[in-house]
C-alpha cells in the first residue's frame, strides 16, 4: 500500500475535509456509470456506499493489497450491482393466492454460499437448450413468443421446458443428498467454480 | 377445466407473468384444488432460481479486473492502482463467467458497467475522461438526512460523514478528471437553475413544435396548391378543341391546301386571360397615350425655353437700368418698415403740431412716406436732410412723387438705409424745382407750374418741412 493511501484513510477517518472530498470524488466517479440504471435511487445508493466505505475503513478491512482507489471501486461496484439486480428481480405476487397452505413458494433457493455451488453443479449437467429456454422465460417471454423464436410448436416447447425443469430439480435433489464438503471437493476437482470469494476477505 | 398436465406445463409462464388472463385464472383455480400441482409450482420456482442464476457481483468485479489485466481494457491495470488477481482461481472462474456471458445479455451489460467504472477509477484516465454533470442537482437535499441518520461510532467518523454528505457528488462528477475535489456544497441556486433550465427546455420544445406544425401546414398547403395547378394544367389541352369553333376566323386565313386541323392554331385565350386582339388594342392605346405625352412634353419644353428667354431679357433690361443710374447718394432701400411723416406745419382738427416721427434705423432700413398738401406739380423735387443744428447732412438725388391717399393728396417716398443717419433729431425740407436741371432761370420763368409764391432764387420752392427722430 502506498503511504499516501494510508494517510488518506487516516485523515478520512479523522474527518479531514480534503481527504473526505478526495474519497468522495473517487466514489462518485466510480459510481457514475450506474447512475442511469439506478435512476432516482442513485443518490441513495451513493450514500450507502459512503457509509459502507466508512464502516470498512473504520474496521481496518482495507489492508493495502491494492490501491485505495481500486478498493473503493470494488466497494462501489459490489453495492451498485446488488442494487441493480434488486431492481430487476422478479416479484411473484400472483402466488399469494395460491400459497394458502404456507408452503415454501416464492422462497429463493440460492441464498447462501453453498447453494451457489449447488446451482453451478446443476447447471453444468443440464443441456444448453435447457439453459437457453429458461433464460428466455426469465427474460419475460411468453411461450408463444418462444415457440415462434425457436421454431417449434407451443405444445412441444412447453413439454421441453417441463422436462428441463424436472431434470434440474432431480439433479438438485441428488446433489443435496451429498454433503456440502463432498460437493465442493467434487466441484473443485471437476470444474473450478466461479471466484465469488475473490474479495470476500476484504469486503 | 384445466388438467394437471397442462397446468404443470404452464407453470413457468405463470411465474414470469406472461399467461393470458383466462389461462392464469384457470391455472390458479386449479392450483388451489390440486396439491400435486402446488408441489410442481414449488419445483418450478426451484428451477427458476437455478436457471436464472447469474455470477455474483464480486465475480463480475473480479472478472473485470482480471480481464483488464490481460488486455480487454488497456487502461485497466496500466496504472499504479491496477488490480492484482484476487485469488488463485480467478482465471478458471473467468472461463465459466465467459460461458455465462455468452448467453446472458443482462450480465454482459452489468460487466460493461463494471468495466466502465473501473476505467473511471483508474488514475491514469483522470486527465483523459471527463464526466458530464448530472442532470439532477438534488444530492444535498437527499444526503443530509442520511448523513445525520448514520450510526457512527466516533466523532471523527461522524464529521467525515457530514463532510462527505456536504460534498456534492454531482459537482464532483462534473469536474474534469484529475482536478482535486473540492468540498464546496451545492447551494440551492443549483436546483433553481435546474428548474429554470427545464422550464426553458419546455418552452423551447413548445416553440419548436409550433414552428414544426406551421411548417407542416405550409408544406401541405403548398402541396395541395401544386396538385391543383397540375390538375388545371392537365385539363387545359382538353378544353382547347372545344374553344376552336369560336375562333373560326383564324383557320380561314390558313394557306390553301392545309386543313384546319393541320394549320397552326394560335394559342387560345384561357378564361380570365386577354386575347391577342385585346392585347393589340391595349398596345395601340398605349402607343397613342405615349405619343400624346411626348407632344405634351415638347410643348412644355417650348414654354420653358420661352420663359428662359423672357428671364434673360428681363435680366438684361435690369442690368441696363442699373447701369444707367447715376452714382448713388444715400442708399435707398426697400424695407419692411414704412413710416408716415406729416408736415411740421400741418394742423389737424383737434390735433396740435405732430410730433417728430420716430424712425428706427439701428435695426434696419425705413421708408418714409412724406405727405404734402400741395397739389401743384413741379418738374422736379429736392429733399434736404438737416440735423438739429441746421447743418445739411444729406441730399437725396431722386425724389419721386407718388399718388397719395385721400388724406394727404400727395406723398413722397424716401428710404433711409440702416445706419444712414446717426441717432438724433432731423428735419427734412422738401423743395419743388421750378425748372429742370440745366435749364436757365429765365427760360422757365413763364411756366405755370413755377409760379408759386415761394419760388426762390435757386429755382426751387420750399414745399414742406418734416421732423423726424432717428433712433
Counting copies of identical and different chains, the oligomeric state is heterodimer
- Quick one: biggest sheet of chain A? none
Binned, the helix content of chain B reads 40-55%
Mean pLDDT of chain B, as a whole number?
69
Portion in helices of chain A: 55-70%
Could you give the order of strands across the largest sheet of chain B?
Answer: 2-9-8-4-5
Overall structural class of chain A, as computed from helix and strand content, comes to: mainly alpha
Instruction: Find the count of extended strands of chain A (DSSP E, 2+ residues).
Output: 0
Layout: helices, strands, pairs:
The complex is a heterodimer of chains A (203) and B (471).
Chain A: H1 3-13, H2 17-31, H3 35-38, H4 42-58, H5 68-87, H6 113-125, H7 128-138, H8 143-150, H9 154-176, H10 180-190
Helix pairs in contact in A: 1-2, 2-5, 4-5, 6-9, 6-10, 7-9
Chain B: H1 4-15, H2 21-33, H3 35-51, H4 57-69, H5 90-103, H6 105-121, H7 139-149, H8 155-166, H9 169-174, H10 189-243, H11 249-252, H12 276-324, E1 337-341, E2 357-359, E3 366-372, E4 380-387, E5 392-394, E6 400-403, E7 410-416, E8 424-433, E9 460-470
Parallel strand pairs in B: 1-3, 2-9
Antiparallel strand pairs in B: 3-7, 4-5, 4-8, 6-7, 8-9
Helix pairs in contact in B: 1-2, 1-3, 2-3, 4-5, 4-6, 5-6, 7-8
